[in-house]
Design goal:
The chain is an alpha+beta fold and 165 residues long. It contains five helices and six strands, in the order E-H-H-H-E-E-E-H-E-E-H. It has helices spanning 18-27, 34-40, 53-58, 90-93, 127-160; strands spanning 6-13, 64-67, 71-79, 82-83, 102-112, 115-124. Strands 1, 2, 3, 4, 5 and 6 form a six-stranded antiparallel beta sheet that branches. Strand 5 and strand 6 (115-124) form a beta hairpin. Helix 1 (18-27) crosses helix 5 (127-160) and helix 2 (34-40) runs antiparallel to helix 5. The longest helix has 34 residues, at 127-160. It is globular. The relative contact order is 0.24.
Length: 165
């Protein structure tokens, strides 16, 4: 999503081959990110401790925008009524989607040059929604950042395990 109203980025240095880091990112479980799992208890999400985080983000492929060798990209559309579920695949409708009263969110996990990073970008489809979401963002931004840092630390720990070296 090239334009956004709200954005958050976090990163951690990881000294390992790209394939190993991205495999660890794809295989990370909620048990390995206990702070994130705790904070997600305050949402409507039902998470299994042994469930893979990225599988839950993918929602059976419904939210996958792109999966490449160095980046995982997930997206969703929300409204006051809840998640918007388009009839066509999300990757086809996400960028052009512009119904008023909605927000579009992208979450990425990327590895390049020894840096594993996450980025969250939010775009509101109209000004009233942008203002409304801005108030919500002020409350949720810090816990959201803690969740992302928990993910990054979990991936790094998984990569650094002696069995993986």
């Amino acid at each position: 999503m090239p334009e956004w109203h709200f954005r958050e980025r976090h990163w951690i240095a990881v000294d390992a081959p790209r394939d190993e880091v991205m495999r660890a990112a794809r295989e990370m479980t909620w048990r390995e990110a206990p702070v994130a799992r705790f904070l997600f208890r305050f949402t409507k999400s039902r998470l299994s401790a042994d469930g893979r985080v990225m599988d839950d983000f993918a929602k059976d492929g419904d939210t996958v925008l792109e999966l490449s060798d160095d980046e995982l990209v997930y997206g969703g559309i929300g409204s006051q009524a809840g998640p918007v579920t388009p009839e066509r695949p999300m990757r086809e409708v996400f960028l052009p989607y512009a119904e008023p009263g909605c927000t579009k969110a992208v979450f990425t996990m990327r590895y390049a040059n020894g840096i594993l990073s996450t980025e969250t970008r939010i775009l509101a489809t109209d000004e009233a929604t942008r203002r409304s979401f801005g108030r919500y963002w002020k409350v949720i931004r810090i816990p959201s950042g803690i969740v992302r840092l928990s993910f990054l630390s979990a991936v790094k720990r998984r990569v650094d395990l002696p069995a993986n070296r």
